[in-house]
Fold these 2 entries.
Entry 1:
Amino acid sequence: EDLNVDIVIVGSGGAGLSAAIEAKEAGKSVVILEQMPIIGGNTNRATGGLNAAETTIQEENGIKDSKQTFYEDTLKGGHDINDPELLRTLVDHAPDAIYWLNDMGAGISRVSLSGGATNPRIHTPADGSAIGPVVVNVLSQKLKELEVDILLNSKAVKLIEQDGAVVGVEAIDKNENPFKVNAKAVILATGGFGANSEMVVQYRPELEGFSTTNHAGATGSGIVMAQEVGADLMQIEQIQIHPTTDPESGYMFTEGLRGDGAILVNKEGKRFTNELLTRDVVSQNILKQTDKMAYLITNQEMVDENASLAKYIKEGYATKGDDLSLLASELGIDAAALEATLKTYTQYVKDGKDTEFERAHLTQSLEAGPYYAIPVTPGIHHTMGGVKIDTKTHVLKPDGHAIAGLYAAGEITGGVHGGNRIGGNAVADIIVFGRIAGQTAAAELK
Ligand code: ADP
């Protein structure tokens, strides 16, 4: 049966859910279509946190940071090709995104350091647990209160156009029965294409055969639908690999582990990189090692302080050794080399200076066992490129004009992250631009 609403939102990740709340609170009728049997998309898998600068939470924790530094770090991390205006919008709105989530009960109160950031600015729940499920939970609770319907197993397949404007979507339900949602505006919040290996290889042939950290629904269908109505794409070939994923399943280990003190060693038992460099550089450095893999080394002290790490260990991703030589023999690597590496590293932490790799923020001495080693390899993580939008989330054509009635937010879009996304910026992106999409689409309804 066909539906009639003011605004139809495609995708129930962080961007779609945020857009829906704003649109509904602006008094519009809204429905969300989600192709999968569950909500949340890749947002469910966001393990890190949310970057923002000049927040009250940083202030309470005595952290000095500035929006300008956040902007510059992101631009540098993104290889200087980020869209400056989209990036400025992200930076300006990020603190509000956190307060907005906290008003709904997210409990984001801890700030840590993460790769590519000059200052601690990745905001996470107090116990260091993953941000994604928290975000999906609070947003979906809010939508329940607001009585917004989320239609599961409902896949948008085509945008409906009339007189040059987008006026709804054609969709199919669980049994592949077609239906239409007629609307005055469509917000595409369908995420990226990191799970679509054909599309990945189309734009980046050298990524053939890589595992992926993405949920199965990250197929890029929204990008294709937008292209069909004339949308321009931006930096579509910019695909990020995440340095630390499980070699077998592609399961991703949060970057925060390295920020909080974990080091990387290779099969020869040696460090080979500053662990806090950006994802692309750390990934490349791992790919240069034997078997294109490395071990994240942590100890019991870190496990006791970090809920994410404790979870990885409980789920069986780590090998444990009561001391380093036992760990080395479990891993089948050279014990003397591993011991020497840790001894040197502990001294760097005590001296406050890593003379080999110049890692800053030497917080954990890793002096005492038991020790844990998590094997890691880079996997396909984030598709930075996508549909071209302006700062109000209008979808743009190659001539720079907006497509009437069409908005997009989140990983489906390109430009915010440039050539490499900094950890903690995806969640900031989806909340900031999801909200703007909902607000703009509501304000522009005829
Ligand atoms: P973001 O982080 O940008 O919010 P997510 O990956 O978290 O992106 O969420 C995107 C959601 O959109 C996923 O749950 C995905 O299954 C859904 N989705 C993608 N394409 C379609 C489609 N054609 N129809 C309905 N839902 C879709």
Entry 2:
Amino acid sequence: KQIYGAPVVGEHGRWLGVVIVMHDISELVRLEQVRKDFVANVSHELRTPITSIKGFSETLLDGAFKDEKMLLSFLDIIYQESNRLQMLIQDLLELSKIERQGYTISFSPTSLQEVLIRAVELTSPRMDEKNMQFAVDIKRDVMVNGDANRLMQIFTNLITNAITYSPEDTTITLRIKYTDEYGIVEVQDQGIGIEKTEIARIFERFYRVDKARSRNSGGTGLGLAIVKHLVEAHHGKIYVESTVGKGSCMKVFIPIHKL
Ligand code: ADP
């Protein structure tokens, strides 16, 4: 806390009293720390691929290019690392856009069923790679008040995570439910699960339960931070239920479109 005091002096130098101003700056200090951590994280995340791209291209230029095997394997690494950089920059720009004050989405009546069908189509190739299948319980449609493209982004992100953090040959279940107020979408996996103590943190920027696993699978660590902002921009909510070793269920609540 910061405390300032000043005497209040009236006419003819008469003492009237003292004004004391107290500022609770703990929130400001915390925000400043969050900002510093973010900058440090971004720098680190950018430096890692760049160091690797630089190192491998230098080695190639020094003569390694003559060995065709080395040439191919190094080029492959350089290509993958530049992809990672591109994804990171895309996610950073996206996050900064939706975190800006006054960010709004264009609301219109949107079918959860249509959005989910598109999300399934988009993520199917990755499902096939891991020999995974969808089980869908989305026969009953619900119209919500939302932005179809933004909702797509939310669900493809959640499905992509469900694929990433699940073993091969498992199932992802998608459900549409509703209450009087909300259309609800559940994305349930049979994956590694998340510890109770980690659940609150996974929506933080760059927070990952297992850094190596997330990086190897191409994750930027920003996906759920983006999801949370998009859900909140819809005046919705997101909950996580999870059991380590059994799987996780992400529940997204989006306000129903009312006539
Ligand atoms: P990432 O790019 O690392 O996947 P996210 O912001 O999407 O970043 O997720 C943050 C972290 O939350 C992940 O690194 C992972 O540890 C955890 N996580 C997200 N979704 C799941 C899931 N379905 N099952 C288990 N862990 C998950």
